[in-house]
Specification:
With 298 residues, the chain is α/β, with parallel strands linked by helices. Helices cover 33% and strands 12% of the residues. The protein has a domain of 208 residues: NADP-dependent oxidoreductase domain (TIM Barrel, Alpha-Beta Barrel), CATH 3.20.20. Bound molecules: NADP nicotinamide-adenine-dinucleotide phosphate. It holds the Pfam family Aldo_ket_red.
Amino acid sequence: MASIKNTAKTFKLNTGASIPAIGLGTWQSQPGEVGKAVEAALKAGYRHIDTAFAYGNEKEVGEGIRASGVPREEIFLTTKLNNPDHKRVAEAIDQSLKNLGTSYVDLYLMHWPSSTDPNDSKKHYPDWDFVDTWRELQKLVGTDKVRAIGVSNFAIKNLERLLNDPSSKVVPAVNQIELHPGNPSPKLVAYNTSKGIHSSGYSPLGSTDSPLSNNATLEKIAKAKGKPPAQVLLLWGIQKGWSVLPKSVTPSRIDANFDLDGWSLTDEEISKIDAIPDRFKVCGDSWLPIKVFFGDDE
Ligand SMILES: NC(=O)c1ccc[n+]([C@@H]2O[C@H](COP(=O)([O-])OP(=O)(O)OC[C@H]3O[C@@H](n4cnc5c(N)ncnc54)[C@H](OP(=O)(O)O)[C@@H]3O)[C@@H](O)[C@H]2O)c1
C-alpha cells in the first residue's frame, strides 16, 4: 500500500500529453489569497492548476506560479475562454497569456457552450454558437500558445453536435464537468471516454458549503480509513478515472487534499459512494442566456 502514489498519477490525453490527476481549483479564490494558495500548492507538490479568465485571478495565479520557484514546464496549467469572448478567441488567448505571464497554457477550454453577447449577458449571439467557437479554437492548435484545447460543461447533446459538425477536425482533449457523488454523471463520463475525451471533475468536494460535508456514508468510510472525508471524495474521483480539481485557499487543506499516497478505496467502498442517493448540482444554467444541460448525463 505504501507504494501507491496517487499524487503522481496522471491520465493520458488524446494529444499524447499527460494531465496530473490532482489539480488546484481557483474559482472564488479571492485576490490576496489565490496567489499564496497556488504557491503553497506547488510547494506541496501539486503540478496542475486550474483557472479561467472569468475567475478574474489569472494575474495572481501567474504570480503564485513564479513565487513557487517550480519551473513552468513542470506545471500543467489550464485556463478558459470566457463566454462573451467567443467571437474573439485570438485576442482572448493573448489576454489570458498576458495575465498569467506565460507563453503557453497546457489546456485551453471553452468554459461554457454559450456565446454570450458581451453587451448583454442575457442575450446569446443569434449568428454564432459553440461550433463556430470551436472552429476558432482549432486554429490555436499547432501554435505555441496552447498544448491542447477542450470544452467544459458540455452535455452529450452538445458534444454530439460538436463532434458531428464537418468543421470539427479536433476532438476535445478534455470535457471539464461537475463530478461528485451528488452529480456523478455516469452516462456523460462514459460518453466522453468512448470519444477519447478525458473527463476532468470540478467541484469534487461539492463546492462551498458542500451538502456532502456531513454525509453519513462518506463519514463512515472516512472513519474506517482514518482519513478526512475530503480525501475519500478525491480518491473516489481519481479511482473512477477522472482528474479532480479541489479548490482551497487554506494551507492546511491544500496539504490535506494532496495527502493521498499509500492508500486506496476498495471496490466495495467505491460502490457505496456511487450509491449515495442525494442529487445536487453546484453549477446550473439558469444564469446563462441558453440552456446547456439536458438531463442526459444521469
Ligand atoms: N468549468 C467550470 O465551469 C467550473 C465550475 C466550477 C468549478 N470549476 C473548477 O473546479 C474547482 C473546484 O470546484 P469548487 O471550487 O466549486 O469546489 P470544491 O473544490 O469542491 O470545494 C471548495 C470548497 O471546499 C473547501 N475545502 C477545500 N478543501 C477542503 C477540505 N480538505 N476539507 C474541508 N473543506 C475543504 C474550500 O474552502 P477553503 O478554500 O476556504 O479552504 C471551498 O469552500 C474550481 O475552483 C474551479 O477551478 C470549474
